[in-house]
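Please review this one:
***
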Amino acid sequence: MIRCCIAAILSCAIAPDTTAATGFISLADPTAVPDWFPFEVSKIDVTSPGILRFDQLGSVTEVRAIPGTAFRVGETTFSVMGERPWSGLLRNENGSSMAMIRWGNSANGEGARVALTDRVWVRFDENVAMRLEWHESAGEAETALASALPQLESAQWGIVEGGVTQWFTSFAPGTGAILKDGTRATLVEFVDSFVDDALGRPAVRVRFDREGQREEEWCIGEADRKGARVQFECPASRPVVVRVAAWAEGSARLGVSVGGTLADSGILDADIPWQVPGTEHELSIEQVLANAFYIAPEQSPWKEAVVRNARATIDVREGEAVREGDALLSYIRKEDARRIAMTLRRADGSETVATLDGGREIEIADGERRFRLRFESRDSGDGIRVEELMDSERFSPALVFCMALVLVAFAGIASAANWKRRLQRSR
């Protein structure tokens, strides 16, 4: 009996850390923390960073796609810019001829991906207009770029009434409409180059007749005329006009006109950004498809990682492999890659950040008190299980219980021995 009691004491004394208290912090309401927990949750970020995998001739490098992470592959240093929803073109026989381009700043490498649709203009700031033109052959594409800009082909003028614009594509004198208040708006003339415009842009003159009163108004193409009653859109009259002429999937030629004159032209290469004359931007082609739909970021079920080196910015869609030099770069997402960063504030205002990466648990301290945090999924929702730890050297509840057992046992042994002696004396 004595040996058993001693063994119980030793087992309690050498037991690992025990739990003094247990609680739960819900990710849905992280402000509700256990009363005994000495921290407040001032901020919580839940992300699921994927993995970037570089395979260079059999040598594999893997890093988490966390913004700011820098790593080297061979002689090249890469920096992770972050993750975002993927956007791009998906081949579909019912779609339109489209191209996906990157329009970036030459100085800092920042830029945006832009979807171009056949014969639809896209504007960049107040100077640049761009569109895709699909042709039957490479020769036809080259001839089209060398020809004059398509001025009226893509132009329209309009009358604004009550915040709504009524557009016209005819530039024949006499074109117009009668407005709701009885005013007759009529196009009087169109000029290729307005004499009072420093850029020599085209213009329209519109006449307004109402109850015997007549007014006329000039409107210059692509002029900023917010609140004006006449609008004139003529993208080809902008100072810089970029035309992407395609004739087959993956094949396109670039033509850049500055001030109405062709300034540069050549074959677009997906791996080589093209410095656009008259701007501080460069253009590179990513996709050219004869029939496609555009998937916008807010509609996309996929994500992509963005990586930058000294030469270029690289986008890698999940499940895709991109060649970078002699290496293949792929982006992989895993279900158990959840990363939770909790900013914990003490009563004195000081803060600490606790980060749970994947399924890993961590320990934090507040003075002599220690706590264990780990992710836990419950029927009521996901959250963080919080445990306050108690060292085995201290008088934990288990140790106190063991000691009580020993005392009871010794008391029982002593009582039995005393009873035995009394019994012997009575005899």
